[in-house]
Description:
The protein has 163 residues and is mainly α. 61% of the residues lie in helices and 0% in strands. The protein is built from 8 helices and no strands. It has helices spanning 17-30, 44-54, 60-68, 71-74, 79-86, 88-99, 111-135, 137-152. Helix 2 runs antiparallel to helix 3, helix 5 (79-86) runs antiparallel to helix 6 and helix 7 (111-135) crosses helix 8 (137-152).
Amino acid sequence: xxxxxxxxxxxxxxxDKKIVEKAYKFANKAHAGQKRKSGEDYISHPVxxxxxxxxxxxxxxxxxxxxxxDTVEDTEVTxxxxxxxxxxxxxxxxxxxxxxxxxxxxxxxxxxxLEEARANLKNQNLRELFLSMxxxxxxxxxxxxxxxxxxxxxxxxSKADQH
Length: 163
């Protein structure tokens, strides 16, 4: 865990640092060798997402899920692994964040198909957003923090990839 991770935060007495630190070790191992387009170690992104959340509203399960949010999508880790290590609550949050807005735009061969897929994705994301909110609003809050951090670091992407 980065030394300054909790710096300046007022955490409730009930906050479980152990699960967050366990999530960090687990995600750091899963993302070993992965880099962001900025050249930073990939783990810096989920840690930043968790830090955003801890500055606002996060409980320890939410912070752990934020740190783990890309492990299922970007590594060999499964939701079963997450549930076994962190419990069903954290696994449900990770699953919800993973399922919000996943699509492979590279699979489309022409611009017309791509634009149709993007329009469909927007509609699908809206449905999934409302469904996630009805299950657990924390899924949406984690996803918003994820997007916020991605927007804060968008300069590392090429102009074409920034859309």
